[in-house]
Amino acid sequence: MKKWWQKVLVFTVALLTLGFITPDHSIWDVLENGQDSNRTPSSDYKNVEEANESIEESYDPIDAIIQLAREQSYIKFGSKIAPVIEDEFEQRIFPNIERIISTTLSNLDDESKRYLTISEKPGGNYSEKIFHITDGISGKDLLRFHVRTEKRPQEGYYYNFHYHTHEDHFASHHTIGDIYYSKNTPPKWLS
After folding, report:
1. Residue ranges of the domains in the chain?
2. How large is the C-alpha radius of gyration of the chain?
3. Strands ordered across the beta sheet of 116-118
4. How many other CB atoms are there within 10 angstroms of residue 58's CB atom?
5. d(CA 170, CA 84)
6. pLDDT (0 to 100) of residue 79
7. Phi, psi at residue 138, to the nearest 5°?
């Protein structure tokens, strides 16, 4: 297996598991040479480990959370809503979500950043929840990102993207932006 495939695999596993799990280095001998994983490491072992360390050093938990936030957003939209609002979401809404996440979470210490979690199930039907970002140690929410469907007389339906923060005990509604959907009633979330 080529070295760059190893790097991609290690990075993908680290990203998907937020750095909690990294692939065992002994698997490279099995994948490359068909060698038994119980064997002592070959002379290439150190190079693979150095590559792994350089990837882990560049791993940023906030970037991982941002990527997962995008994925959770599209899960929420489903296949019926996403094509209608995708362009505006990517141009106007998601850059603001990314900025809010980066700004808020950059104040955390490195240890706290390592244990950040993001909710995996957006709210369906007419629920507002897109995702919540949580301190994985205490279990307390730090940020809550929501989208509300609003019917405006003689205009139609809009999606109001907003967030709540732990700093004010989730009392304030901070608007990110609105996206027009249609004059027709939109489908339920996750559809």
Report:
1. 3-58, 61-182
2. 21
3. 116-118, 129-135, 141-152, 156-165, 174-182
4. 10
5. 30
6. 94
7. -85, -20
| Token pair recorded at residue 118 | 């993001």
How many whole angstroms separate alpha carbon 142 and alpha carbon 88?
Answer: 26
Neighbouring residues of 18: CB distance < 8 A, sequence distance ≥ 6:
61, 64, 65, 114, 116, 117
Given CA atoms 61, 67, 73, 75 in this order, what sign does their dihedral have?
A: negative
Residue 121: strand, helix, or coil:
coil
All residues at 6 or more sequence positions from 139 whose CB lies less than 8 Å from its CB, including other chains: none
33 or 109: which carries more pLDDT confidence? Answer: 109
Q: Which amino acid is at 167?
A: E
Point out which residues pair with 189 in neighbouring strands. 125
Q: Is residue 151 pLDDT above 60, yes or no?
A: yes
Is the overall model pTM greater than 0.85, yes or no?
A: no
Q: What is the DSSP string of 124-187?
A: -BT--EEEEEEETTT--EEEEEEEEEEEETTTEEEEEEEEEEGGGTT-S-EEEEEEEEESSPPP
| In contact, 133 and 142? CB cutoff 8 Å | yes
Per the document, the length of the chain is 191
